[in-house]
Amino acid sequence: MLPTLSRRRLTRLAAALLAAATLYGAPAAAADEPGWTAEAATGRPGPARPYFYLAGPAGTVLEDRLTLANPTDREHTVTLRGADAYNTPDGAFAVRPASGSRGAGSWISFGGATTVRLPPRTRAVVPFTVTVPPASPPGDHPAAVVAAEAGREVGVRVHLRVGGPALAALTVEDVSVRGHGAAAAVEYTLVNRGNVALAPELALSAEGTFGELPGRAARALPVELLPGQRARLSEPWPGAPDFDRVALTLTVTAPGAAPATATAPAWCLPGGGAAAAGGGLLALGGTALAALLLVRARRARRSRREEPYETAAGPRTPAPEHARNHKHEHGHEHELTGATR
C-alpha cells in the first residue's frame, strides 16, 4: 500500500510550489487578476486549502468541491475544466491547455456545472468528481482545476495519488560549469524516475588541484519535481576558483529516495581568452617535450658510437670525429639527426 503523506511533507510540498511560483513566475492569470477567485473549498471556517489532496485505489470515484467568489459589482461567467500538470524545462509548475490533457486532468468532471454564473458579491461552491480508471498505475498523477473567463485563467492544484507501491527515485545528470570565480554557476539536470512528486535538496562539493574547494551545503530547491519529469537548473557557486581543474560532485536527496550523485571534471578558466591561452600553453609544453626527447635520443646515439667495442683483433675505439665527418662528406653514410648543419 502507498504510505500516507505526513503533514510535514505536505507542508513542504506546498512551500516548494509557492517558492516555484515566486521564483519562476506565477501563471499569467495570477498576475492579471480576473476580478473573482477560485480555491479549494473548506468544510469549516479558516484559511483556504492551498490545493486539493485526493487519494484512492484505481477504479474509484473521488469527490471534492471548488469555491468561486465574486467580490466585484459586476457579474462574471466562469468556465471550469480539469488539466494535466507538468514541469516546464526550468522546473516551474504548469498545466496543459484544454485540448492537451490525456492524464489525470481528463478524469476530472464538473457534470453540468462546467459554466458558472457569478452575480455581484456572491460565492458559489461547485462539486466535482475524479474518476480514476481501473488500469491507472500507482503513484502521483498531477493535475489542476482551471477556472477561466475571457482568456484569464486561475488554476488550483490537484494532488492525486493512486494506491499501490510508491517509488521515490531521482537522478542528477549533465553537470557543467558556466562563468568563473564568484560569478560561476553549476548547471545540471534533475530527473524524477519514480512515481511520486519530489521536493529535492542539493549539496555541492569540489576538489581542486591543491585540495578541497568551497562548495554549497545542502539546501531545498525551489522546485517540486513531478513523476517522469525533468528540469534543467542552475546553482550559484561563488567559491569557484579563477583558474583550476576541479572535480565537482553534486548530491541530491529527497524524502523517501536514495541520494543521487553526479561527478564531473571541469576547467575553471577566466574567460574564453584565458581558455585559449591555456590551450596555447599546453601546445607549447608538448613542443618543448618533443624537443627534449629528440635531444636525449641524439645524445644516446652519440654515446653508443663512442663506447669501445671488441673485434677479433682486440679492443677497438671509434674513429675520431673528423674522420666520421669526412666519411659523411663523401656520401658513404648519412644520419638524420634533426640538427641544423
Summarize the helices and strands and which ones pair or pack:
Elements: H1 7-24, H2 28-31, E1 37-40, E2 52-56, E3 61-70, E4 76-87, E5 93-95, E6 108-109, E7 115-118, E8 122-131, E9 139-140, E10 143-149, E11 152-162, E12 170-178, E13 185-192, E14 201-208, E15 211-220, E16 230-236, E17 244-254, E18 257-268, H3 271-306, E19 309-311, E20 314-316, H4 321-329
Parallel strand pairs: 2-11
Antiparallel strand pairs: 1-3, 3-8, 4-5, 4-7, 4-10, 6-8, 9-11, 10-11, 12-13, 13-16, 14-15, 14-17, 17-18, 19-20
Q: What is the share of helical residues?
A: 10-25%
Calculate Rg over CA atoms: 35 Å
- Summing up helix and strand content along with how strands pair, one would put the structural category as alpha+beta
How many strand segments? 20
Oligomer: single chain
Largest sheet: 7 strands, mixed
* Mean pLDDT reading: 77
* CATH level 1 name of the largest domain: Mainly Beta
Gross CATH architecture of the largest domain: Sandwich
In brief:
The protein is of the alpha+beta class and 341 residues long.
